[in-house]
Structures are given as C-alpha cells and as structure tokens.
C-alpha cells in the first residue's frame, strides 16, 4: 500500500509501463482461460514483474475484475441524438458490438457468466454497468417517442432486443459485425415495436 | 481403456452411480469455475472416486466437454408444427431458455466463450450443435412462408433475433423467463420481418 509519488506521477515512466504490461497480460489470460483460470503467478511471469507487484496493484482478484468492468464502462460511448432514431440506435449497436468483441468485452461476459448468488458484488457491478447504458437509452427513446418516431417503449426491453442479437453474433465470431448488420437489427426492432399501433 | 462388461451393463449398478456422481460434479464445477477452472483432482474428490476413474471416463478435458455438448444437444426438442408459427416459435424459444439456464446450458456458453482460433474443434462442435437447430428452424419457417404467415426468411437471422435476446435475459438471471416473455419476443420479430412487405 506504499506509493512512490515520483514514480506514480511520471507519465510514460517505468510504473506506467508496468501497469500497461500487467493490464495486457491480465486481458490475455482472461480471454484464454476465463475468470477462474487467472492465476497471479502466470500474470506476473507474462507481465515480467514480480508477484509482489501484482499484489500491490490488485490485492485480490475481485480488485482486478472491478478494474476490467470499469475499463469496459469507459469505452462505452453515449447514445447520439441526430434526430434520426434508427441512425442513432444503429451507431449505438455497432459500437456495442465492437466493445463486446475486444478482450475486455469478452472478459466482462465471463464475469457475468460466473454462477453467483444474488449477493455477489461483482456480478451486480457488471449488471449495474449495463444498466447505466439503459438510463441513457431510455432518454433517447423518450425523445423519439415525443418526435413520433417510436411508440412509448421501455429501454430494458429494447436493449434486450437490440443487444441480445449482437452478443449472439459476436459469440459466433464468423465474421465482423458491420454497420449494415446493426441497421438490419434496428429496422426490424423499430418496425416490430409499432406492431400494436398500426392504423 | 479396459472395460469390465459385467459392470458396464448393470443399469442402476455401481458404475452407473459413479457416472451420475461424476456428471453432477463436473457440471457443478463448470458452473462455478468455468471451463478452465475444471481440475481432475477436484472432480475426483467431489464425486468421491479415484482420479484413475475420472481419467478412464474422460481421458482428457476435451472428452468431457464433448460429453457436455452432446448432452445439451439431447435436451433440445424439435420445433413443433401446429400450423400457428407464432405459437410454435414461442414454445421453441421457451424451451431454449429453459435449457440455457441449466448448468449444462451455462457450461455450453462457457465453452463457446473460450478464445479459440478457427481450428478449435470444440468451439466448432458447439456451433455445429447450434446450427443443427437452424436447419430444423429453416424447415419450419419455410412452411410458414408457404402458408402466408411469414415473408421468406433466413433461419440464422431469425434465430439470432429470437435466441439472442433470450441469452441476454438468461444471463441477467433477474427472474425466470416465462412463456409470455417468449411470446412478446416472437410477436415483435414476426411483425418486424414483415416490415418491407406492408401493403
């Protein structure tokens, strides 16, 4: 828990390089072996640091997983509002697909997949992270409803209908997920949302 | 690789009990620790058998994973044809949700999540298993198209739009997935598929 300020605040210095190496090694191992295959010994050896350095950075594995979730949250961009809801949801979905296909995104999914009781803090943290996006989405949907582009809709349901297929697609890894894949999903869902509102 | 036929063919006998204990222990560990957290030592101790027994049953871990995938395949029921495509897809989706929420279903997802090169046999086997369902689905969709209940549609796309949201839902484990959840997804997707065919 001791901190050497002259090192910690030297950007590009040795501490920063160690951090980057540790981070890259952690994501590699998570992607290859999953959450429970991650061992500090292997992490230290891949990052070419001592085990004490790993324990200083992440005193336990949950600290590491929290960092993974936090970094994933940083990569998520807010939903745009260009006035065209199909276009904005398409961009939102495409960026979600790109984030999900990265080692970090895959690690997040691994964390969510662990069997957990309701009380598990890590699983809850992962879900809260996804829910934060839901609030953002609800605001965008409400503006679309006000503009007559959508019937009144619930963001958690819409998010499931949009992000679920993307996760399914990314898991198969047959080919990259394109903007036109995103548009096809969004157009189908938007049309489907109107089903009970046909004149 | 030696087999004792008098034991192997005694249903309900000791061999069968050992098999069931091994199977239950394997699913427990997979659910708790993921594919790469599964160790033969722990498997043997949880199933209360010797390590040699585990190695006889599954000479390596891929043999075990293949068994998991095969057992999952057995649980999947064929898509019904009552003449009402919304009803049949709803039942199909509901049974997929139930299968996905079991320890076996979760283990299958874990296997699919491992980082793999194209050549990985296990990942391919998991995908082929899902694709077998796609052939079945395509036949049902084609009959619905012939009956005027659907425009011409591709099963892989429809399956992604139906099963993706279910997987998303099951992963959150907030509450059980009900028949009416399944129906809402199916109705939205079917309405959305007609979007380019409105009169």
TrEMBL record, chains A, B:
The keyword Hydrolase does not apply. This is TetR/AcrR family transcriptional regulator. It comes from Nocardiopsis mangrovi. InterPro entries: Homeodomain-like_sf, HTH-type_TetR-like_transc_reg, HTH_TetR, Tet_transcr_reg_TetR-rel_C_sf, TetR_C. Keywords: DNA-binding, Transcription, Transcription regulation. It holds the Pfam family TetR_N. The keyword Transport does not apply. PANTHER family: HTH-TYPE TRANSCRIPTIONAL REGULATOR RUTR, TETR-FAMILY TRANSCRIPTIONAL REGULATOR. Residues 16-76 form the HTH tetR-type domain. Residues 39-58 bind DNA. It comes from the Bacteria.
